[in-house]
Known about the structure:
Low-confidence stretches: none
Largest sheet: none
Distance between the termini: 36 Å
Radius of gyration: 23 Å
Structural class: mainly alpha
Helix content: 55-70%
Number of strands: 0
Amino acid sequence: MTVFPFQIGEVTGLYNRVMKARSRGSDVDPPVRKDVVTISSEGKRQQVIDETKTAVLARIKSGG
């Protein structure tokens, strides 16, 4: 894929405009987030088991 210098300039210009707009909007207090997600100890345990299982299987498959 070929990227031309004017394309890089357009992207950086857009990035600058977005960052300026965000900084101007920061004067307003952000909304208070009310959604809270909690993971039960059983859920955490299952996640650790799944991650471990995936890591062990990947290691076995790679031969290491």
